């Protein structure tokens, strides 16, 4: 199991104010976030449409140096992989059922100098990892059905996390186990105890910054870390 100090918190910018995206990203990173989680939706693989490589490039140009974790919810995936490599992504993850050639897509990501990952919807079996564990740097378990922020954590994901953690530990590869969907201050410790080491949180973080609480991001990130310390 990953050491507690290795927990990473990745705010999902899906819940940020897109009209002030650069400032929003600066503020969550200044408040102690580790990674920028970047949700790409195509209104085909998932029923929503968000942002593409130009926005990733713009964040790099704006001065963001933190890792950018690009979650591709698109089909097909390979063209977007090349574009996000060029745009400055750090991690690129995709859904295996959205790629005709999973091994090739993983290799494309690594050949471009990025870390590669597979994403599992709540009902997608972990068996997609068979035969490609050596090409994976990240396993991302969705704890909601993809497409929207603000949904509730699906409790069955805890058992799936335990199963994924066992697979990763048995593989002896250096693979991060990320969880995405409905992560909050009151459930993050239980999620960590089930094996996750990287935590995407959208609404929990971005809803914390309000006019009445200008330090909301600091407060919620401290609360998430304090909860993780108990895991
Ligand atoms: O990829 C997705 C949704 O498809 C997520 O990254 C959500 O954006 C997480 O939002 P919260 O559940 O934390 O509000």
Automatic annotation (TrEMBL):
Binds 1 divalent metal cation per subunit. Its cofactor is Fe(2+); Zn(2+); Mn(2+); a divalent metal cation. Pathway: Carbohydrate degradation. It catalyses: D-ribulose 5-phosphate = D-xylulose 5-phosphate. One of its GO terms (biological process) is pentose-phosphate shunt. GO terms for molecular function: D-ribulose-phosphate 3-epimerase activity; metal ion binding. Keywords: Carbohydrate metabolism, Cobalt, Isomerase, Manganese, Metal-binding, Zinc. GO terms for cellular component: cytoplasm. The active site is at 39 (proton acceptor), 180 (proton donor). Substrate binds at residues 12, 71, 147-150, 180-182, 202-203. A divalent metal cation binds at residues 37, 39, 71, 180. Its EC number is 5.1.3.1. It comes from the Bacteria. HAMAP family: RPE. Belongs to the ribulose-phosphate 3-epimerase family. Catalyzes the reversible epimerization of D-ribulose 5-phosphate to D-xylulose 5-phosphate. This is Ribulose-phosphate 3-epimerase. It comes from Vreelandella maris.
């Amino acid at each position: 199991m990953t050491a507690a100090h290795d927990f990473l918190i990745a705010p999902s910018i899906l819940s940020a104010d897109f009209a002030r995206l650069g400032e929003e990203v600066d503020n969550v990173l200044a408040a102690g976030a580790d990674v920028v989680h970047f949700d790409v939706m195509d209104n085909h693989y998932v029923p929503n449409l968000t942002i593409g490589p130009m926005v990733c490039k713009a964040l790099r140009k704006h001065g963001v140096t933190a890792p950018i974790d690009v979650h591709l919810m698109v089909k097909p995936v390979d063209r977007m992989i090349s574009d996000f490599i060029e745009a400055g992504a750090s991690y690129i993850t995709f859904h295996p059922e959205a790629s005709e050639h999973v091994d090739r897509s993983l290799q494309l990501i690594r050949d471009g100098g990025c870390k590669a990952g597979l994403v599992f919807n709540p009902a997608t079996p972990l068996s997609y990892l068979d035969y490609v564990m050596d090409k994976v740097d990240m396993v991302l378990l969705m704890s909601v059905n993809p497409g929207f922020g603000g949904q509730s954590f699906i409790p069955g994901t805890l058992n799936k996390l335990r199963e994924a953690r066992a697979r990763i530990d048995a593989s002896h590869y250096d693979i991060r186990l990320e969880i995405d969907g409905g992560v909050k201050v009151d459930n993050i410790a239980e999620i960590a105890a089930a094996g996750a080491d990287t935590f995407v949180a959208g609404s929990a973080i971005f809803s914390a910054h309000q006019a009445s609480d200008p330090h909301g991001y600091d407060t919620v990130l401290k609360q998430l870390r304090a909860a993780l310390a108990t895991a």
